[in-house]
Write a structure and sequence with these properties.
Number of helices: 2
Organism: Paraburkholderia dipogonis
Shape: globular
Largest sheet: 6 strands, mixed
Radius of gyration: 15 Å
Number of strands: 6
Pfam families: Ribonuc_L-PSP
Strand order of the largest sheet: 1-2-3-6-4-5
Helix content: 10-25%
CATH class: Alpha Beta
InterPro entries: RutC-like_sf (IPR035959), YjgF/YER057c/UK114 (IPR006175)
Strand content: 25-35%
CATH superfamily: RutC-like
Structural class: alpha+beta
Protein name: RidA family protein
Distance between the termini: 15 Å
Order of helices and strands: EEEHEHEE
CATH topology: 60s Ribosomal Protein L30, Chain: A
Number of domains: 1
Length: 137
């Protein structure tokens, strides 16, 4: 990797569930690691009950990471969402997710059903963001 690559670990953000950075950045492109619905204050605390509460916690965790590197949801260009109970939880997750963004300002998105996630979570979400005023890639 280029020496200009930044590896971000954000103070106050949740403890990673594996060996990775909260985000990496190069040339203004920021890749946020998928967040789990874990508490930033206590990684061993039980996960919230239900996909609505878990989606809220995941989005809050992602916002913590964004703020920690000087960005916000308005900088998010692409989102990937992973659900373990796709048919059951898709509509509920969508309602919580959509409320996080201003109307008409939704990032591009992919949503995938998966067989399992770390910590037996129901949802995981990652972001690709772009720092404003970055040089064209």
């Amino acid at each position: 990797m280029d020496s200009s690559t930044k590896f971000w670990m954000v103070e106050g953000a949740p403890t990673p569930v594996g060996p990775f950075s909260h985000a990496t950045e190069q040339n203004g492109w920021v890749f946020l690691t998928g967040q789990m619905p874990t508490s930033p204050d206590d990684d061993s605390a039980p996960l919230p009950e239900g996909v609505a509460a878990q989606t809220t916690q995941v989005m809050n965790n992602l916002v913590l990471v964004l703020k920690g590197i000087g960005l916000g949801l308005e900088h998010v260009l692409s989102v990937r969402i992973f659900l373990t109970e796709f048919k059951r939880d898709y509509a509920t997750m969508n309602a919580v997710y959509a409320a996080c963004f201003p109307p008409g300002k939704l990032p591009a998105r992919t949503c995938i059903g998966v067989t399992g996630l770390a910590r037996d979570a129901l949802v995981e979400i990652d972001f690709i963001a772009r720092r404003p005023n970055s040089a064209a890639a």
